[in-house]
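pipeline: protein-struct stage 2 | run 1193 | Plant basic secretory protein
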Amino acid sequence: MAPTPVPEPEWPVPRLSLRIEDLAHPGASIFLEAVNPLKALRAAVIASFTWLYTPATVPKKLAHSSCPRHAVHTLTLILRHMPGVAHATGGVNNKEIHFSLDYIAKSAGRARHEIQGVLTHETVHCFQYNALDSCPGGLIEGVADYVRLRTGFDPPHWKQKGGDDWDAGYETTAYFLAWLEERYGDGTVQELNARLNGVPYDARIFKRTTGRPVAKLWRIYCAHLEERGSQQRVD
């Protein structure tokens, strides 16, 4: 007997749209051949909601922050010629993701995986909380890459690494957040995100969530990576 399909949560998915500024660009055909635009965007939105907003795991006092931003009414994906990879922009109600056709063309060898990964990262920026724009950029980018990591669209060049800064951003912070989620339980990152809603950034959100300050957590994490590396070298 086939398993019973699990219905998607009734998240407030915004109206989704697509604009391609140069259909003759090789990146345009690669994009359209690799993914279904509607399904890809919707999957990115659902991934953002799934990994950042799970009310059952967030303390009651933060319950008001445990649902996605209802204010986002439209999300537009714009494929265009530009340097770099992608970025998200827009106001409270209308968000845009600008995605480089040039980058898509360079990613032809693994187009579907990379396109979905980039879309997931940028869509998170449209829905995550940011402490009234005072949150460190490294944490903002780390949360976006954390969701990308959890959805399985991390690129092959990503590596776990320690170093001096927990908020170096991107995959460095993403793996750190994933470790926190594993160590302190499901909902840890959701709670950190909730604590960034409507108030200025305060690094004590880590201690309030885990019981330890972020500097201590980072030292433990780096020691964990070093120990694991030593074991692998012995093996």
